[in-house]
Fold each of these.
Amino acid sequence: MTIDGLTITDTVYTHDWVDWHYHEQPYFTFILEGQLIEGDKKNKVHAGPGTLLFHNWQDPHYNSKPAGRTRGFHLELSQSWIDRQGSEVVMPTGSSNLQDPRGKLLKYQLFKECKGNGPERDLAITALLLELLQTASQRSVKKGIKSRGRYDP
């Protein structure tokens, strides 16, 4: 589903291995069920239900899925969506395993809103996503790295 420049998918992983790749847009992955191993140049994350991952654009990574069903909720942010938000967007850098409980709660709320269809849905999704980006960015900002607006690898 696409909403105002956001691509939202509820995905069942079917491949046991996905070789090194990158996405052209920053995105969040929230593991809903099963297991996934995701690696990048610096880290390997064993992701189970409730794991929240962020990848900035063109950040290479690979995926490995152990036996069994694995399902994830993905949210990709287009440049047009980021531009419309203006200076409100503070983009996290690189890849992150976001362990902040507030971020996970926001992702559950986003999942719930994306399943609805009420008139306030799009506004609620935007507000929750901006808050999630702010929460995710605090890790980068604490390290002295800030990336506003445009995709910055």
Amino acid sequence: MLANKKSQIIEIANEHCQAMLKRGGGVVDLRWRKLAEDMLVVELLVDVQEAMGANVINTIAEATSPFI
């Protein structure tokens, strides 16, 4: 279950945005909702600070998706 692994997923995600973490940002939360029996939407909430963040968001999503 995602609830049991939430902090671990956030930690894995933050490994892929070290520069953002140094500026006080990074992945701050995780939420999800079930769309169907076999389908979830998982949202990583990211504080991008002063960055636009689009590229790092993709990197974070790609890095965490195998774990999720």
Amino acid sequence: MKLAFIGDVHGDLERLAACVQSAAAAGAGTAIQLGDLGFREDLLGPGRPWPRFPIPVLAVDGNHEDHLFLAWAHASGLAAQWARHGLLHQPRGSLARLAGRSVLFLGGALHADRPQEEDNGIADAVIDAALATCAVRPPDLIISHSCPAGIGIGMRGSPAMAMQAAQHITAAGYDGGPADDAGEAGLARLWRNLPRKPALWAFGHFHHAHEATVGGTRFLALPEGDPAEAPVLWQA
């Protein structure tokens, strides 16, 4: 089965639906959305006209979500209704089996443009739980919103946001990694302690395409989702 990866759409559900349609037309059996989808009540609350997708869409949460609403959606059963429409939110640290491959999902990221909130970053407890899971079933593919910091991937934030990132990450006491190899310290800890490195690690968050191979793993950053662009596929 082919998997298609879709970058940030920031609440534009019509754009997401068009990206999924393009992925299905290209032969993908499942689409994976890399965070900042737009999990908010005004978009995905009860009674909203949710899109229906031709193939399942598995999504992690990004930093630009309403995380309180997302938690309520799972507790209330609303997330189960999304799943019946083909949209499945994958909680942080969850593991899925797709076409015989093990896939680990890790949402969340530090804000670069505003003060940090309670739930946007990745908690140490989530990384600990993910490592325990990976010790039993090492993932073939990791999906996250951001990427590990300081391991050689070479991600750079937007130059226009450098001053904001310095204020809201570094000056606020958070570790966003080197300016030329940015990401999440928690994901770097996960990477260093994985019992077996995955074949592929896909992520969004930075809004531009980038690719690097580190330790035998292909790291793939996707720009914002664009249905006019050919979908990025991976043979699972």
Amino acid sequence: MELFLLDIGNTHTSYGLMKDDKIQYCKSCVTADIDKLSFPENIPVAAATVVPKAKDTLKNRDVFWVDYRVNTGIDLSLVDASTLGADRIANLAALSVTAKLPAIIVDCGTAVTLESLDSKSVFRGGQIAPGRFLLRKSLNRYTAQLPFYPIDNFEANTFGWTTEDAIRLGTDYGLVGAVKEFILKTKEELGVDECDVFVTGGDSGILMKNIKNLQPVVQAFTLIGVAEIWKLNN
């Protein structure tokens, strides 16, 4: 069995091929360029997206779309599932088949999302927050003089002695502090002192550097969830 998978995000899209229940490769492209992607011929396609326009872009292709209306394998009864993003549903599906429950997954892209499953695969909620890019972009857009500094591997050279260093420190450690608090509150909701906390996405590096016991997942983590949901429905 072969399956072409996509996780279409606000900024970037991950895609890959699953064959015999194993991801053969996982690559990425700019979401604005998904119409230029080369799709394998005569292979089913499954996708999750938080970008409504993406469905219009791919409307001429036979795509299985992940959403709350299909069989997800997850108990979503505690929440209004109609408001739950497809990427978050896919992350929950992947968490359910790859982790010892209860567990938490943090996905840090343009937005930072946290999802949690209890020991019975019940979705117990989570958080959504702006990622570093959005934090920096909002400072630039909604103030008169603060410049925009792109996300890169540079760190502040001083303890905020310059505007650039102050913005880097404020957004970088603002994100770290927020995620620490998210994890703490989620463990309280799950009723546990400890559980596995996994992390994926572009900002995972800075989180792993500054938060103890975070566990990285494979690059194709969300794609694994998309595949699991496709299998439940096919």
